Amino acid sequence: xxxxxxxxxxxxxxxxxxxxxxxxxxxxxxxxxxxPTLDLARYFNGQxxxxxxxxxxxxxxxxxMNVKMDCHWEGDTGxxxxxxxxxxxxxxxxxxxxxKEGNAYTGTAADxxxxxxxxxxxxALNWRYVLAYKGEDGVVKLDMDDWMxxxxxxxxxxxxxxxxxxxxxxxxxxxFRKAE
Length: 180
Description:
Blueprint: H1 3-23, H2 40-43, E1 46-56, E2 61-74, E3 77-86, E4 91-101, E5 104-108, E6 112-121, E7 124-135, E8 138-152, E9 155-164, E10 167-178
Antiparallel strand pairs: 1-2, 1-10, 2-3, 3-4, 4-5, 5-6, 6-7, 7-8, 8-9, 9-10
């Protein structure tokens, strides 16, 4: 193999690594110094309301929603009882059971395949899970990449990207407000 071929292969490998590294998303540790500190057991305790939207891959808003939540914790286990009302009048309920282990969280819900797993640092939490979404054509298992950022003691922003086979289909954005 010529010296030029070796250099071309090294450059191609370096470009591929740079491309992949550049596409890597943030980590909760990127927010370790950010305050206020997000503790799900403290924030999601009591009454919480949320407002948000679902956007398709192009960015077009396809659904809007309001969410009312009743949340409580016993030790390191929490229950988040979510009641969704959509702009078309339909409703949905999801009940999460969340376990806290240090800065790590695991969660289950009836429409979550297996467990949601993630971690928190500073004002952020990221967890990933598979959602069994019931659409018009049946159930589709979507990969969910869910981020939360605590803005202040009562306000939290949640952005979730959903995909299938690595292809992004859209995002859900929610703005939470904890009752006083």
